[in-house]
Amino acid sequence: MPKIFKTNAEIATCGGKLLKLTHDSKETGTQMDVNIYLPKQYYDKSKKECHESKIPTLYYLSGLTCTPNNASEKAFWQLQADKYGFTVVFPDTSPRGGDEVPDDKNDWSFGKGAGFYLNATEPKYAANYRMYDYVHKELPSLLQQEFGSDGKLDFIKNKSITGHSMGGYGAISGFLKNYGAYKSCSAFAPICNPSVVGWGIKCFSNYLGSDNKAAWKQYDPCDLVKVVKSTNASDKVLIHVGTKDPFLNEHLRPELLLNASKGTTWEGKFDINLVDNFDHSYYFISTFVPEHAEFHAKHLGLL
């Protein structure tokens, strides 16, 4: 069987290896970069070749302008993946490609690097900007085909999701839209109500249509909590936001998610932690990665 992924680098780090990969995506119509960290448990020769329990996966969705390398280098997920025994997948934030992929070179918060984890419907962007189906459907399937065939890794059934900023919104939105598919969800400084803040309005308008507010609601966590029913008593979404985050009051607005969840089955299930003095950077993210890793490890059955 021909290989799906091209390995551009295989880097020993902590107790496992970080693989930097490229593959052709039918969803985006482009080549896509993705990094995966295989923890030390994957390489443990003392374990049986056929693991009784497969190594689960945590998907990490990055924020505006990021590539798969940002979190791979700065978030320090690898140490936690080794501690608990899960794989980490770092997808890209948008289709890339050349001039055939539409972009706004004058705006870092829209276009390439800012796919907003949705399926665009506006004709200019619909062919390439299909990051929702790419992240939640195509990529896990391709990873399972190539890396899960030996029975050690599980990219589809036992998985959780997290993300930062735009990726935090993408994680919460994807968790709710695929309720039951992910064992847990967390977010670092997420865009909580994109329909009413600048970054979200810009991306929703251009990708989905400025007048198509019904489509906006299909991705906005503050709308999804009203239509997606929580049926599991253990449901909880862990969120950290820094009080000195420069985007807190203009773009993130975590209080709007709390308000939207009131009177729904999600009331009391968003554990939003405002942490003093922290900003929007990877210094902030890496500080709270251990807490998020433990949270996901419990839900993935590793504790």
TrEMBL record:
One protein family per Pfam: Esterase
Q: What is its EC number?
A: 3.1.2.12
For this UniProt record, give its keywords in alphabetical order, as a comma-separated list: Hydrolase, Serine esterase
Q: Which GO terms describe its molecular function?
A: carboxylic ester hydrolase activity; S-formylglutathione hydrolase activity
**Membrane-crossing segments per the record:** none
* Gene Ontology CC terms, in alphabetical order: cytosol
**Residues the record marks as active site:** 165, 245, 280
Q: What class of enzyme is it?
A: hydrolase
Keyword Hydrolase included in the entry's annotation: yes
**Single GO biological process annotation from the record:** formaldehyde catabolic process
Entry annotated with the keyword Protein transport? no
Concerning its family, UniProt says:
Belongs to the esterase D family.
Please report the name of this protein according to its UniProt entry.
S-formylglutathione hydrolase
Q: Which organism is it from?
A: Saccharomycodes ludwigii
